[in-house]
Amino acid sequence: MDSLMTALMMLAAPAALMAVMGGTLFGILVGALPGLGSVLGITVILPFTYMLDQTTSIALLLGTYCGSVYGGSISAILINTPGTPQSAATVLDGYPMARSGRPALALGWATVSSTFGGLLACGVLIVAAPALARFGLRFGPIEYFALGLFALSCIVSVARESLLKGVLAGLFGLFLATVGQDPVTGAMRFDYGFFELSAGVSLVPLLVGLFAVSEVLWRIAGPAEPGGASIMKAGFELPSLAELRLRFWLMVKSALIGTGIGTLPGIGATAASLVSYADAKRTSPRRDNFGRGEPDGIVASESANNAVTAGALVPTLSLGVPGDPVTAVMLGALTIQNITPGPRLFSENGDLVTYLFLALIAVNLAMFVLGALLAPAFSRLLKLPEPLLMASVVVLVTVGTYSVNSSAFDLGIVLLAGLVGFVLRWLAFPLAPVVIGFVLSPMIEGSLRQGMILTGDNIWAFGASPIAAVLFVLTGLFLLWPLYGWWRGRQRSGTGVHPVSGD
């Protein structure tokens, strides 16, 4: 009870409330503008958190995260273009519903479903994360090393297009984290004579350059977008109580699907919304109307993808394992604020964790209020020219990054990371594994060295720990599963290569 009262007082502070509203508003704007996305929103806002305290920064980051996922539904409904990949399934019924003369009701369904999915997932997070963290208190250096390897294995899901490229990107992130002073011997590593690199590569310039600047460069280098659908005038209309009752259990089921998928490392909200939409299309009594503006399609997609925001925080907070690419960046953002996600977070920072839960609930409520109030402005927002948007991103990341340390060297890191990110995109390398490797590298290296000292440099003794052994097995299965799928595919294709011939 004391922890709850302390957290409520922290949330009631004017700065925290302003961060909830401001972060959510910024997230909705970023999500509504096609192609920007949650990762870009968080990386743009990240440098400014250095000027804020812990509680205000947490509220700002959570608001940006949740708001951006919801914001993607706005452009999906109004211009047939999902603002974020998470809203890809919302297009299928959201835009037809808007074209049939009901854009206000379509936005109302998206807002209600997003809020409901986010709040239900918050309840799951509050129950599941502490229980998982209590189990994690049994971890020592060996178990942490095994957990770090398992966390790295989520690269398999993030880089499903090319496992090899995902692994190489993760190794690149691991290498970047070794730049600077050796934590054990004090020797300098890979500084190449630059004094500024003696403390290592800073996380903020790396994230900002890798995602935000590379996105701008990618847009500049890409072909101009052809003229899309016309922007229709938007309002806001809540569904009737009877309609809400009719689809209540669909919202519950879709939110649970999103929460469950969110807790699985590396899968993300896009998969959750598509799985939920497919399930609703299969089981809904109104399945014949899907694709023609059926509210069930909007409800299934938006309840699921917004539930992922809280579901993905379950492994992130309790074990330090990112639930999706966005929480991989969130993991780095929390680390910057001297918050180390993992089992000890709940025992050592109980008030802060309770505050985080309450802030997440407040963000979802703010998302509903802002979505209802600002719907008429969304259609005008979507008319902004892309060059203006990209120029604004460059200005924000430059000013924000420089304000952290007043360092021109950091701006150089931003530019270099942006160029590297652009090249990685061009070569079809995923960017999220780089962040995952960079964030997890200190834990993996430190726990490995401590474990080797404890076992007398006998790495085979790591398997004597039951928890570590299970994690090692799970990591191996996670890494080998794509190879098994590839082998099965070869077997199936092989059966068709030699057809049986008749006389």
TrEMBL record:
InterPro entries on file: DUF112_TM (IPR002823)
Pfam name, any one: TctA
Segments forming a coiled coil: none
Domain of life assignment: Bacteria
Membrane-spanning intervals of the chain: 32-52, 59-79, 106-129, 141-158, 164-180, 192-213, 255-277, 352-375, 387-404, 411-439, 459-484
Keywords: Membrane, Transmembrane, Transmembrane helix
All copies of domain DUF112, residue ranges: 17-436
Name of the protein in question: DUF112 domain-containing protein
Organism this protein belongs to: Marinobacterium aestuarii
Source species taxonomy: Bacteria, Pseudomonadati, Pseudomonadota, Gammaproteobacteria, Oceanospirillales
